[in-house]
Amino acid sequence: MVKTVKEPLRKILGRSFLSFEELTTLLAEIENIVNLRPLTYVSVDKDDPEPLTPAHFLYFGRKDFDYPLQFTELFDKTISKETLRRKKLYQTVLLRQLWTRWKEQYLLQLRTAHKFSPKCP
């Protein structure tokens, strides 16, 4: 699983310069995307149970998370709103590109693994 994330991430970031906080945020978003991917069939019927995801195993039924600090403590008061908007937009673009590449690569690997797996009687 790590390889399927590292390769698209390396291609997308290239020689981009991200601060530690930006990279940490991006990696946390990627972790969230990967852990919320469905492992089972996704039904269109709202009455069906939600699909099983890796997050169900990692967080074991927790729906709400308490953060150890207040987010207002993290803000740098010297950064303008426009700079924050640009950084958020850039991170969003990177995440979209990563999601597209990762999804294609992951589905290809699933197809290949299924193709070469031994048939059960």
UniProtKB/TrEMBL annotation:
Highest taxon of the lineage: Eukaryota
Query: What is the protein named?
Result: Integrase catalytic domain-containing protein
Q: Which organism is it from?
A: Trichonephila clavata
